[in-house]
């Protein structure tokens, strides 16, 4: 077992608590059942990640059970194995030096879009307040990608989706992995990523009901409205909230 | 910071408590997640409005955090900024001298109709008991209206809808803002507006299921039934309830 | 105010408690919001009915608030007005000398079938265990029936449905009133009627999902299965349960 | 009443507690209403089964109320009658010497697939993590099978489905009985069977939403992904969890 330098003790302890709290929020928000889902956070120097252990019951989970890894997925000072999705998390952190927290869930409505292989269309302001434009569904992994370094390749396909579509990681902070489910991230904190995962589930639910009402013919919200609502909450001219 | 005359102290304190209670009811009724939604009330002389602050967590919200504005959206004696939807609220109060409370939510099923750009049809007595005829979906705002005084223009489009369709503000006390969500008001109190917002969400949910069962071909309830149920609960011949 | 003979004191007190408990079960089962819904029971000699008062909040409701009426809808010894649906209840009790409890709700999925004007098809054993064959949707009331003795006429249309279709009131103990919602009754007790109202809501929810999966082409369960399950729970050869 | 040898006392007492706990989990997981559903377990020598009594209220159920039967459905040392589905359980235990727990529910979404007479398609990794390939819907029982030894024949039809389709009982540990509902089993324990019943309900819910989004045209997940996820959690190369 590898050990990390003692100078990290305080930061890691605080991060473990933060990541633990964010994981428990998945349960409170009804975004997971059983041992599903995982949230991670990262140290300030982006050398270590803290993530939920694999397959441990939320009811018995403790802050100290959170697992420490480096960006090459090596484990440090931990009694548990990390989430099997660890290589997806670390790749996204490496690719995006501003991401502060990542969450993966199998929440019902977001998964349904991933299983249908469709983007979540931006049908209205609830969506636009939080995600700029459609939440993309990535292409399916090839059998070679699946049988190879699967979780790493999952991260690569997410990155490919953002590159090909020229998406902004901060403005559209989620992807659906096809036939699988959502990954959501935040430039602020692990908790904020979980808050966004709840928002994603809610807009997916609204979108399904919008499709039913419109007989699958609903149109995306007009661009002016999407921009208005996104920038009402984000960027230098934001006027929602107290900041 | 503007200050209001001391003669309002007692009335404002009471109104803040009432508006706070009504906002917290949004959480109890599961009509909002995060910091979404807002409820307002108005002083007897209709000079001041009290409304939820923008983007503050419900868990930490206190009655004294409610924000005071006048009808031109100036803020008085408040440590927080008011809800960003403030200009929609004040315009509706000015336009309708009998409205006593207004609520805006992003409740799932009502938003779905707004996103589909459709009225909620009056399919039965549950609807007719509470809203006379379909709950209208307003036209989309133009890009100019969105990029201008957006929240004020949202109020104007609601008013335009009621004028064009010759609707009665008391009998049909809600509108869907297209691509956005519901605004609901009450001629009684902020709490009553929230009760109506829950009713609206419930009839929207029933309407979606009615569309599924009927393969999108359900007809609106017959006029005699709509009138019977509306007037069973409202007006001088009402016989529902204890009054 | 009329008064009933003192010999009923004990029976009425017990019945009020029973009817109150059954009404509160509507809240526990999530079958109602606000002041919606009502349950009634009847004295052994079928002279008096006890029913929820009209439009009173469940949170403040007390057993002694239940209202006593006779079979001609006259009120006795009560501080509140009875449910506005009272004439529907009394007519059903008079028409069916074995009914011991009646409940009316606006539960979401059952109302959706009533609004679509469709029977709830008997798609499987969950339904057949509790209701023999489809739960019928009555015809719409005519404008004359609506503008006349509306609640009485609602009961007449339910009776007409059972007569025309030659249905057994005990085996199929529920009807959907078109454009309105369900009435459910029990030959056992008010509580049992509420239990059946929850079952009805559940089978309506299952039926809607069955329609979605089958693209509205699902077939009713075969007759042999419907009979098997109904008679597994009911009649002299029943073998479900401990009796 | 038959009696079992005293040497079983300790094992049976432990099994009754285990089966009771698993039955109560059905309530906690919202998989049942009323007295619906049942879970069973089996002794190590596979001579006796312990199962929920028929039609007893969960609120008053106690561990000692669990009923003991042998594999020919004879009851031992029990004050209650066993679940009416007992012959289905015992037949599955006899046919599969490794099954350790069986559960039958009428959970909403799984029943909807059974009522539509359709397999639950394997649309994604949430499904593949837990069930290998589609969850099969058995053929309908014939009128003769229904009118004969119905519950025994239900077990026979499940076995026939697995034989005809050459399915692996461990990998695909659930079946839908057509026009009825799901049976789920576990090679580990009664509790694990209930955990799988919750998973089944969740993937059925996801599948219905996937069908809505895709206008009933969604494709099953690719074979490489199904195998990857199933073997990530099961078999000698599994790397999910802490084992």
Automatic annotation (TrEMBL), chains A, B, C, D:
<dbReference type="GO" id="GO:0008742">
    <property type="term" value="F:L-ribulose-phosphate 4-epimerase activity"/>
</dbReference>
<dbReference type="GO" id="GO:0019323">
    <property type="term" value="P:pentose catabolic process"/>
</dbReference>
<dbReference type="Pfam" id="PF00596">
    <property type="entry name" value="Aldolase_II"/>
</dbReference>
<dbReference type="InterPro" id="IPR036409">
    <property type="entry name" value="Aldolase_II/adducin_N_sf"/>
</dbReference>
<dbReference type="GO" id="GO:0016832">
    <property type="term" value="F:aldehyde-lyase activity"/>
</dbReference>
<protein>
    <recommendedName>
        <fullName>L-ribulose-5-phosphate 4-epimerase</fullName>
        <ecNumber>5.1.3.4</ecNumber>
    </recommendedName>
</protein>
<dbReference type="InterPro" id="IPR001303">
    <property type="entry name" value="Aldolase_II/adducin_N"/>
</dbReference>
<dbReference type="InterPro" id="IPR050197">
    <property type="entry name" value="Aldolase_class_II_sugar_metab"/>
</dbReference>
<keyword id="KW-0119">Carbohydrate metabolism</keyword>
<feature type="domain" description="Class II aldolase/adducin N-terminal">
    <location>
        <begin position="17"/>
        <end position="208"/>
    </location>
</feature>
<keyword id="KW-0862">Zinc</keyword>
<dbReference type="GO" id="GO:0005829">
    <property type="term" value="C:cytosol"/>
</dbReference>
<keyword id="KW-0479">Metal-binding</keyword>
<comment type="similarity">
    <text>Belongs to the aldolase class II family. AraD/FucA subfamily.</text>
</comment>
<keyword id="KW-0413">Isomerase</keyword>
<dbReference type="GO" id="GO:0046872">
    <property type="term" value="F:metal ion binding"/>
</dbReference>
